[in-house]
Design a protein that fits this description.
Blueprint (H helix, E strand, L loop, with lengths): L2 E10 L8 E6 L2 H11 L4 H4 L9 H22 L7 E10 L4
Antiparallel strand pairs: 1-2, 1-3
Helix pairs in contact: 1-3
């Protein structure tokens, strides 16, 4: 029986293969998504239509939490993020396919 591995890539806005940077290999989709949402480089103003106004620390913390939730939903549905200057792809690899 094949075991699934979840390979996480950081990539550009076009999901170019040549601009992929492998960020990790995980044994579960949940772990892959958790680390992406923990370490993502997507800026808040790309996720939310923010003006140049300064955010209070509590407002920024709330928006960061909402951003993680939004990214988590995108990744759970599509295995990728889209529309940001930096994006993430999750590929599923089958290990030990001959075994």
């Amino acid at each position: 029986m094949s075991k699934q591995l979840f390979v996480v890539y950081e990539t550009d806005a076009w999901h170019s293969i040549s601009n992929r940077d492998c960020k990790g290999i995980y044994t579960s989709k949940t772990a892959a998504i958790r680390d992406i949402t923990k370490h993502h480089k997507i800026e808040l103003d790309e996720i939310f239509d923010l003006s140049d106004e300064d955010l209070t620390p509590s407002a920024k913390k709330r928006l960061e939490k909402e951003a993680r939730q939004k990214l988590r939903k995108e990744l759970e549905l599509c295995y990728q993020t889209q529309g940001y200057s930096i994006n993430y792809d999750i590929e599923i690899w089958l290990a030990n396919d001959w075994g």
